[in-house]
Amino acid sequence: MNNIFKFFAALLFSASLLQADLKTDLTHINTSMLELNSSISNAELTSNTMCASLISLNRQAKDIINAIVLVNDSFSSPITLDEETLLLTEDLFVSVASLSNQSSLLSDEMSLLQPDTNGFILSDAITAMLKLSSDIGEMADRIGEMADNILIMSDNIGLMADRILETQVIQSENMILTQNTVMQTQTNTLALVSVIETASYDLSLDTLITEGNILITKMALVSLNPWNISRELEDVQTDVNNYLVQVEQFKTLLNTDMAQNTIYINSDTLNSLIDLSIIMTSIGIIMDGYGTAIQAAQLFTRESTLLEAMNSMLSLSSDIGKLSNNILEMADQILLMADNIGLAADQILITQELQSINIATTQVSILTAQQLAIGIIAASN
Amino acid sequence: MKNLMKFFVVVLLASMPLHADIHTDLQTLLNQTNTLNSELGNFTFDQNNSCAQLRTLNDSIEENTLNIRNMIETMSSFTVTNTDLDVLDDLSYLSQNMSVESVRLSMELNTITDTAELFEYSAGLNAILQLSQDIGAMADRILEMADRILIMADNIGLMADRIITTQVLQNQNIALTQSSILLTQQNIVLLSDSLSTITYNVTLGQIIDNTEALSNEMNQTNLTTNNMQNELATLQSQTVILLESMTTLLDLMVTNSAKMSHYINADTLTMLGDLSGIHRSLSASLESYANMIEQLAPLTDTVILSDATSTMLQLTKDIGIMSDRIMKMTNNIYIMADNIGLMTDKIVTTQNIQMTNVALTKSSLLTSQSIMITVIKNFGL
Q1: What is the pLDDT of residues A113-163, one digit of tens each?
Q2: Which of A31, A115, A345, B284 has an alpha carbon 20 to 30 Å from B363's alpha carbon atom?
């Protein structure tokens, strides 16, 4: 009899300990939620950087969710419901509604910064903001689950029925508020997403490729001799410079578009970028041919003509160098702003590799041309 | 003669400060680039404030590149010195060294991918892509400046050997820089994995079929004073199985979305919208059950009624969790979606459908719970 009494006493004691633990857990969770609320309200977003603040907030939110999940997993024995437990549960519903409201204000702040914010920074911020509001939505769900668990595990529902029904009214009101605000925040944040499909550039890129091929044909048709060397190289330099202007115009358009948008890459664009780098290789090969022709004609050409030609050659090399750089930088910019890097990974890797090989080959040709020109200028001096 | 001398003195004086300016500018540029190189060398990727720090560093590199560009555009004819060429060599080395640092950072990111969530290290991926692009642009401008100096220097002939040494060095370093940048970009691209949500459609389809079957069964089940305990227990065990399959799918999505971005398949969103509609029917059936139990309560054995109310509370909890899981699935899919910009409208539509359904589901569940609590109270269960 004594043992049975001891057993029930132990059971009662452990149940009361469990109850005390639950109250402590609920209090801690609510404190963490209030802290998160304060962190969101103090978060500083600027048009230069948003990621650090948002990532920090996301971590806080995730920790709270984990704490709630832990409590949800720990219900194993009956609970005797009391006023304090119900009050603490109500506080959680009120706090999560307040959190959703605070995160909505943060998304408004982000919307205000949008016009001055680079698309690349905004893209990270949009993701982090969506994640934060999703986490707050999940927090609300988990709190709802916790309330259900408390209800299921309680052994005095009948006695506390009226008070439980009051809690449920508060729960219902706050849950509706939370869900609507989270939804509104997510919709507002999604409205900030602005994407351009690279397919819209295909026509411009096709034009650049066509113009590039015309340039190659014109350059290939030039036959340098002691009489025309200066004039022909000057003409070629003008043609290359005109092409450089077109490429730079396109690059400026690309940079302007990407200031506020991200990019969705299609395979044709990547192929066009490879084609452009192949054009550069062809120009490099023609430059090598010019070098051979100049060396052959060098002895029979007037010094002043040769010097003029070499100056053109240096300018030509400089412009071809700029062309190569522009093409590589355009590819880098498209990669940076791309939403679908993972999806297009294989083709991006091939494109980058081919471009790199082609441009490196072109740069070797440019160096050879420069060395030749400097050598001739030095010899003339 | 005197006037002629004056003219030459003026020309000499005019060219001296110009030369001094370019020389000073080059030295200043070298100092700035040295500082940037040290800052980058000291930068280590951790999970706290890295993206903001890297952003500041990127801004400084962009500013440096802009300075080089301004120098190129305003450069006039001058006499190049050995010191100037030394500066060019050093600049070229520095940019090459910085590109190697970008490779180090891209490899460092691998170390945090296990602990950080995708959206967190995605900000890091973007920042490093931006860094490698900025370093590439800086290296390009340095090379272009070397080319420009070649055109603007009035003593190429005298300095030919030294200039050629610089040009060869520049060429070697730009090749190394480009290959490091390529490696950085490859590392980033390889870290950017993507998965089409179409892979979830089969499982999602099965869950929809099973949920529809459960919904049909609930509609066809008539509760009586005798069968309510058994019928509800059967439905609850079916619900648990369904909840388990949904949890398994959600866990898969959570695991995948921690490491991979998603390519949204429109059907997946449609199915998730449909699923939330079926849950609305489930909760409506549950509300009808609650009303029926309330009506039958006075005629029902207390033990049966007690079991039935407990099972009802468990059912409301399980259906509530399933309803939450659907929202969570949708969030997991679109937060890191490759095609978020292209699917924005569809996402918002799906969310609206889900929100409406979930709100009605929750309302029915809460009503069911309230009725059960009242029954428990009134019958002293």
Answers
A1: 988 888 888 888 999 999 999 999 999 999 999 999 999 999 899 899 999
A2: A31
Question: Does the CB of A258 have a partner CB in chain B at under 8 Å?
Answer: no
Collapsing DSSP to helix, strand or coil, B381 comes out as: coil
**CB contact B46 to A (< 8 Å):** no
Contact B179, B100 (CB under 8 A): no
Q: Do B341 and A262 touch (CB under 8 A)?
A: yes
Q: What are the contacts of A38-45 at 24+ separation with CB within 8 A?
A: A40/A99, A40/A102, A40/A103, A40/A105, A40/A106, A41/A102, A41/A105, A43/A106, A45/A106, A45/A109, A45/A110, A45/A113, A45/A125
**Structural domain total, chain A:** 2
Residues of chain A neighbouring B193 (CB-CB closer than 8 A): 342, 345
- ipTM confidence score: 0.86
Closest CA to B135 of B84, B94, B167, B88: B94
Claim to verify: residue A240 and residue A290 sit in the same structural domain: yes
Give the domain extent around A124. Answer: 2-193
Q: Which residues contact A200 (CB under 8 A, 6 or more apart)?
A: none
Give the chain B residue whose CA is nearest to the CA of A170. Answer: B366
Q: Is the pLDDT of residue B359 over 80?
A: yes
For B74, counting Cβ atoms within 10 Å of its Cβ (0-12 exposed, 13-18 middle, 19+ buried), the class is exposed
- The 10 Å CB-count burial string (b at 16+, else e) for B177-214 is bbbbbbbbbbbbbebbebbebebbeeebeebbebbeeb
Q: What is the Cα–Cα distance from A186 to B334, expressed in whole angstroms?
A: 11
Asked if residue A322 lies in contact with residue B145, where contact means CB atoms within 8 angstroms, the answer is no
Domain span holding position B90: 2-191
Q: Which residues of B touch A314 (CB under 8 A)?
A: 147, 150-151
Separation in Å, CA A300 to CA A154, A227, A286, A313, B272: 106, 9, 22, 18, 80
In this structure, are A178 and A207 located in the same domain? no
Query: At B339, phi and psi to the nearest 5?
Result: -110, 35
Q: Is the dihedral angle over the CA atoms A221, A226, A228, A229 positive or is it negative?
A: positive
Among B191, B226, B258, the domain-final residue is B191
Mark whether B53 and B106 lie in a shared domain. yes
Q: What confidence score (pLDDT) does residue A145 get? A: 93
Chain B partners within 8 Å of A356 (Cβ): 178-179, 182
pLDDT digits (tens, 9 = 90+) for B286-323: 999 999 999 999 999 999 999 999 999 999 999 999 99
pLDDT tens digits for range B32-75: 999 999 999 999 877 567 788 888 899 999 999 999 999 999 99
Nearest Cα to B361, choosing from B265, B292, B283? Answer: B283
Residues 90-129 of A with CB under 8 A from B: 120-121, 123-124, 127-128
Look at residues A83, A92, A81, A78 and name the one whose alpha carbon lies nearest to residue A146.
A92
Give me the pLDDT at residue A210, please.
97
If DSSP codes are grouped into helix, strand and coil, which group holds residue A68?
Answer: helix
Measured CA to CA in angstroms, residue B206 lies from A101, A377, B271, B275, B338 at distances of: 37, 79, 11, 11, 26
As a 3-state breakdown, chain B gives helix, strand, coil percent values, each rounded to 5, of: 85, 5, 10
Chain A CB within 8 Å of residue B156 CB: yes
User: 3-class DSSP state for residue B34?
Assistant: helix
Q: Do A374 and B167 touch (CB under 8 A)?
A: yes
